[in-house]
Amino acid sequence: MAADASHYPEDYRAIIHADFDAFYASVEQRDYPELIGKPVVVGGKSENRGVVASASYEARAFGISSAIPMSRAYRLCPQLVRKPPRFEVYRSVSNKVMDIFRSITPLVEPLSLDEAYLDVTRLETSEITPPLIAQELKKKVWAELSLTISVGVGTSKCVAKIASDMNKPDGITVVRPGTEREFLFPLPVQSIWGIGPKTTERLNSFGINTIEQLSKRDISWFESNFGSNSLSVRNMCFGEDPRPVVTHRERKSFSSETTLVDDSDDPEILREIVIRLSNDVGQSLSSRGISGKTVKLKLRSSDFITSTRQRSVLEPIQLSSEIADVAVDLLNHELYKKNSYRLVGVGVSGFGSLENSQDAMQLRFKGF
Amino acid sequence: MRVSCLQQNLSRGLSIVGRAVASRSNLPVLQNVKISTEDNMLVLSATNLDIAITTRIGAQVEEDGEITIPARLLTDFVNSLPDDRIDIKTESDPLMAGLTCQRFEANINGTDSEEFPPIPTVDEGATIKMDPQVLRETVAHVAFAAATEDSRPVLTGIKVEVKGDDFTFAAADGFRLAVYEGKLTEPLPEDMEFIIPAKSMQEVGRLIGSDDTEVEFTITPTGTHALFNIGTVEIVSQLMPGSFPNFRSLIPEENRSSVTVKQEDFMRAVRSAAIFARDGSGIVRLQLLDGEEGGRISISSRAEEMGDNQSEIDGSVEGEVDEESKIAFNNKYLSEVLDVLGDGEIAFEMSTASSPGVVRAVDKDGYTHVVMPMFVQW
Fold first, then answer.
1. Cα A145 → chain centroid
2. I need a surface site. Which of A307, A363, B19, B78 has the fewest CB within 10 A?
3. In total, how many domains does chain A have?
4. What's the helix, strand, coil split of chain A in %, to 5?
5. Contact, A27 vs A93, CB < 8 A?
6. ipTM exceeds 0.85
7. Strands A40-43 and A81-83
8. Nearest to B8 by CA among B88, B83, B105, B103
């Protein structure tokens, strides 16, 4: 879809959804140029029950997609190149791209490491229009990070998100105000956020395949099929999605967990894992400038029994070391059971109803 | 080994090397202290592999020897003893150290000192000479800004640069940067730079205490270790590999407005705001205001559903003062720098709500502290 860069009528929002193309795999191809053009996946080893976390477009051509077991990926493509994930690198790239986004507007809502919504409504001037901003965004990301993003420009979050997916990789899709139906109606129902494979199957069995067919149903039909979501699903069929871009979504907790390669009952190994996970959580908290009062330890034993232990502290904490102190102590109280564990998790919650978790953010030095 | 020393001396020596005993380690011997003899001295050493501390105490040596024993156990026991002579005698089979003081006796099982990691020796290299109080003050002004997490290991270090007799110490954790520039007591023939763990420098600062003998530190030619000589104490620290980010580019070259206030006033206002900021991200808002005599700075914070607070202090304001002259910080970052600056006049410089603020002490030329603000809805 060509980017018509003319001005927007008033009263329309301009939302951009930006999404890296095959994020982890592209970062690997960027950092290891010998991988360019090759089927590359990022994920754990197949002998360690690894799954594909990200697949390059070359790998996708073999039918490999994320979340499939690594062993199956190798069967689909024996010449596959697997790289172990380097999350610190992805996180740092993610921080950089979010900085680039924020250099354009403070109204950035990160959805994950590799995608975000930007509200650029108020940035329109006599020279600048949302499609031009989107082009500029792509250029900037390429110039600074040597990675491609796909962007969608719409009048709501749902349209922008669907649009960004239309021309991957390295695509730009602009759905101009007033053309939402034209854009959405021919698309399959599963394009709508929240309609997963199960629902798609059910809708298809009713003969509903496209968004247009879905949009023709009346309210009561939606109510009996989508329950409490009926109104928002129906509105999305028409491209209506009033959700604002929120710079900080209120998260109730931050956590990190890991499945052990081999189940372990070794106190030292378990403590080390708890400390590492506390570090992950501490970083999430400090990068957002928030602190919590409750630390939770999650353990899943070899016989798949999951238990959680939590403790609240008086003063909110944020630092990894403080989180680790509490989490390790919680762990110490479990060790007497001499259980063997297959999964360990650490989380922090109890941020309170603060202005801060919602709309404040500690800024970082550029490049740090 | 058979030696005698005074309880007081042994206790002090153990408290010095105790700072380098590993608290948690995969190598149990690191939780030990090594005791050996040398020219009628008892030598105590401990290391956690990042840092090693060695100190010597006066002793009467009847038979040379060496052993390592659990530091915690030994320290607690020695501290429980009366201030009198302690006799130490080691047995080799089984390996143990026997301590006797008046009618107190203890046997502590030991580990062969062969298993103790060798303390790196630093015999050659460039030696930097500094006034101990200058070094201590520099460390106090810089080290707290270093990162405490090792997601980016170099940021847990202090970047040290030496040019002639000028030195620069800098530390940054991504949100703030502290830079101290000053003079060595003697110029160094060659320029040099290295990164040293902030923790090591904090130990050095602590051990200097009120000592006023010149501190010498030697950097190995390979740039892997630094050795500090502070009186009877030697500290060997690892230096950190990697490159430190260009911190000079983080210091704003100019500012839109600045205000000079008394540290005492500023500190009190920030502390009082911090009470209301405690539950949140510790957000403290500053706003520069015009005033009859020079200007004012307003410091405020709020706690949702609980209340808010606001205070004003007088100061002299320069530059633009308007609606844009406001900025928010995590109170911890403000209090920490104000705390270390101590009494005197503080200059606070800012440009916009989203660009870094700078805190300086009017009477400390060489010090610059840059803090990133918090993005808040005003």
1. 19
2. A307
3. 2
4. 40, 25, 35
5. yes
6. no
7. parallel
8. B83
Which residues of B, range 285-304, sit inside 8 Å of A by Cβ?
302-304
Same domain, yes or no: A14 and A122? yes
With respect to residue A68, please indicate whether it lies within any of the assigned structural domains.
yes
Same domain, A295 and A174: no
Chain A CA closest to residue B329? A362
Last residue of a domain, one of A153, A178, A203: A178
Q: Containing domain of residue A26, as a range?
A: 7-178
Are B235 and B203 a contacting pair, CB within 8 Å?
yes
Instruction: Tell me if A355 and B373 make a contact (CB, 8 A cut-off).
Output: no
pLDDT over 80 (residue A359): no
Q: Which of residues 280-339 of A touch B (CB under 8 A)?
A: 282-283, 286, 289-291, 315-316, 319-321
B172 touches chain A (CB under 8 A): yes
What distances in angstroms separate CA A185 from CA A16, A164, A211, one per listed residue? Answer: 20, 16, 5
Whether the CB-CB separation of B311 and B287 falls below 8 Å is answered with: no
DSSP characters over B290-347 = --TTS-EEEEEEEETTTEEEEEEEE-EEEE--STT-EEEEEHHHHHHHHHHH-SSEEE
Token pair listed for B38: 């040398």
For an interface test with A, which of B27, B281, B302 has the most A Cβ atoms less than 10 Å from its Cβ?
B281
Q: Would you call B341 exposed, middle or buried from its count of C-beta atoms within 10 A (0-12, 13-18, 19+)?
A: buried
Check CB contact under 8 Å for A362 and B330.
yes
The single residue of A28, A58, A115, A180 carrying the catalytic annotation is A115
- DSSP for A59-83 reads HHTTT--TTSBHHHHHHH-TT-EEE
Tokens 């040293």 appear where?
Answer: B196
**In which residue are the tokens 């390059």 written?**
A56
* Run means of pLDDT, 10 residues per run, chain B, 378 residues: 96 95 84 94 94 95 95 96 96 93 95 90 89 95 89 89 96 94 94 95 91 90 92 93 92 93 95 83 88 85 83 92 90 94 94 93 94 84
Active site residue A124: no
Q: How many Å apart are CA A25 and CA A168, to the nearest integer?
A: 15
Provide the 3-class DSSP secondary structure of residue A186: coil
Is B281–A362 a contact, with Cβ atoms under 8 angstroms apart?
yes
Structure token digits, residue B336: 């920490």
In-domain check, residue A230 = no
